[in-house]
Amino acid sequence: MKKFGPALLVTAAFIGPGTVTTATLAGGNYGFALVWALIFSVIATFVLQEMASRLGLVTGRGLAEAITEQFSGIKRLLAVFLVISAIGIGNAAYQGGNLTGAALGLSGLAGGKLVHWVWLLAAISSALLLSGKYKLVEKALIGLVLTMSTVFIATMFIAGPDLIEILKGAFSFALPSGSSLMVIALIGTTVVPYNLFLHASIVANNRQDNQDLPSAMKNNRIDTTLSIGLGGFITLSILSCAATAFFATQTEVQAHNIGQQLTPLLGNYANIFFAIGLFSAGLTSAITAPLAAAYAVSGALGWQPDLSNKKFKTIWITVMLAGITFASIGIKPLAAILFAQAANGLLLPVIAIFLIWTLNNKSLMGNQTNGFLANLFGGLIVAFVSTLGLYKVVSLFF
């Protein structure tokens, strides 16, 4: 575990109910046809998270601070507005998915109305943030998420998915009818915009003034590679389990049978364990999302990013309330979670453009600016996600 660092928290943040649900729906509805989209998402996550963490390591600044410091006057106001809008809207939708996913888990265990669990979970998350002791709870929940992930990986091997079909899906680049929103959601649940702000802030806060930069950069890349790679493999295992349990048997994925994919390993206990894992993943992300939004908005506005700061508290409380609203308006649970991931995917290009711009600023990054390959991959990621998002928007009207 010595090679793992801040990026492991990023992995735990994106392996939330959105990833579980979206990967399950992708595998259950399209088999292995969208494996290529998952691989693209993992590569994109590594490229962008490496940039964000390098920014924090070199400058000691979070992403929001670094972005806004580069502009003045009207341009600065526009940059602040775009950052706040993107993260605020994205995290509100994402928070709705987090609360819905965790509530779905509790509802599966104890029954009751989903909206009641949403309010209870929001109260628990808020209490943890207000107490300042959320880190201890977060570690315990990360442990539960990793336990759930281990079961998915074990189940994948027991279920024995067709490796040839996985390879075909990895290189087919197919876009089955009606799957464009699912592709956007797969990207949005893996390359989470708020994680770019979270990663940069965590690395910046842990940065040492007398650090050996070359050594720190090497360790940072190893940490990012291992952590994001682990997250990608976990997501692939979920997709594979769903493809084997649902797509291969032509069974429709629904809220009441979503845990069926764990049956080969856990038998009658599959739904119970799945519910516990979904609750754990959702509560972990329900704490992280408003916290990351508070870091981002505080950084953009020049406020003190501290849990005891009233303005900082106001930001995460606003995101929490927005999440409650999204989760309580009666949208079907799986649809709400899928919408949150799609919203993230559509907002990603905005944040990615700002990140790439910042990483090419020599006065800020010195000799650690982006190289040709980083800019090339970053540009391709922005172009692909933007094109896919535009295609989806146009398809809604024509």
TrEMBL record:
Subcellular location as annotated: Membrane
Chief location: membrane
Alphabetized NCBIfam families for the sequence: Nramp_1 (NF037982)
CC per GO annotation: plasma membrane
UniProt keyword Isomerase, yes or no: no
The keyword Cytoplasm belongs to this UniProt entry's keyword annotation: no
Native source organism of the sequence: Aliiglaciecola lipolytica E3
Domain of life: Bacteria
Protein name (database record): Natural resistance-associated macrophage protein
A Gene Ontology BP annotation from the UniProt entry: iron ion transmembrane transport
Keyword entries, A-Z: Membrane, Symport, Transmembrane, Transmembrane helix, Transport
A GO molecular-function annotation: manganese ion transmembrane transporter activity
Pfam family, one: Nramp
Transmembrane segments: 32-52, 73-94, 114-131, 140-160, 180-204, 225-249, 269-302, 314-331, 337-359, 371-391
Membrane topology: Multi-pass membrane protein
